[in-house]
Automatic annotation (TrEMBL), chains A, B:
The lineage of its organism: Bacteria, Bacillati, Actinomycetota, Actinomycetes, Streptosporangiales. This is Transcriptional regulator, BadM/Rrf2 family. Signal peptide: none annotated. One of its GO terms (cellular component) is cytosol. Pfam families: Rrf2 (PF02082). It comes from Nonomuraea pusilla. One of its GO terms (molecular function) is DNA-binding transcription factor activity. SUPFAM superfamilies: Winged helix' DNA-binding domain (SSF46785). It comes from the Bacteria. PROSITE patterns: HTH_RRF2_1 (PS01332), HTH_RRF2_2 (PS51197). InterPro entries: TR_Rrf2-type_CS, Tscrpt_reg_Rrf2, WH-like_DNA-bd_sf, WH_DNA-bd_sf.
Length: 153, 153
């Protein structure tokens, strides 16, 4: 099981936008800041726009901004936007193979239910943490240092 | 993010072995029961043997058995055996790119820590559920029905 690298990129971009405040940041500048491939990064940022997490304005002064306050963007929002809404465990109902149809199959498969229970714990924890929490957990001065770096780009 | 189909296969095989008791089950019989590709299934079963979850005995009467009581095989054991021990979220430390080395990087990245917190909730829930819990959650008569099916193979 692996979460795509886009989640790390997306979360750092959201955190950076929270630090920079009202400054729209272009794909090119994000790519420079984090030494990431611009074309791949752009796809991830566009997915965050489609999910309503970022807004995008075109033009030389344009770029991406958080679409809502950092406390209203959860890690679950970002993960879902980038990894899709599907459950990580996909039940293919192998319990039903080679067996006559039975009313017991109306009940969810116990294996799937157990895996789902664990996945819900993961989702609950992701939903309980926001970009504002990332801001709060950052080392002292991190926002100021990012603003200085950004000003020099 | 996606958990491989092998986890569904492996859990159903463990549950089946718990139902059948002391009956060693061959790859071929598991493959027939669940209509699975024998070669791929065998790799998954061998991974469970390497992880100490199953034992394997060769020969015509041989097959796989649970290596320990069902209450001592957790879903976490099976998932780790089949998906590997790595964390789903891999931090590549993009926060450090293009920046001078700094003592603040001795602290874990806040993004990675937040993602890890959620993943630990998932792992804790998987570790809290055992194959014995799957047995307990199955519909009434499921073990007897499996024993009947198996006897007809």
């Amino acid at each position: 099981m692996r979460i795509g690298e886009g989640v790390e990129w997306g979360l750092h971009c959201c955190l950076t936008l929270a630090w920079l405040g009202e400054e729209p940041v272009s794909t090119a500048k994000f790519a420079t800041l984090f030494e990431l491939p611009p074309a791949y990064l752009k796809k991830r940022l566009q997915a965050l726009v489609r999910a309503g997490i970022l807004t995008s304005t075109p033009g030389a002064k344009g770029g991406f901004l958080l679409a809502r306050p950092p406390e209203r963007i959860t890690l679950m929002d970002v993960v879902t936007a980038l990894e899709g809404p599907d459950e990580a465990f996909r039940c293919t109902e192998i319990r039903q193979r080679g067996v006559e149809p039975s009313p017991e199959f109306a009940r969810p498969c116990g294996v799937a239910a157990a895996m789902r229970k664990a996945e819900l714990a993961w989702r609950r924890e992701l939903a309980a943490q926001s970009v504002a929490d990332l801001v709060a957990a950052a080392p002292p001065g991190a926002a100021a240092r990012m603003r200085q770096r950004y000003a020099r780009l």
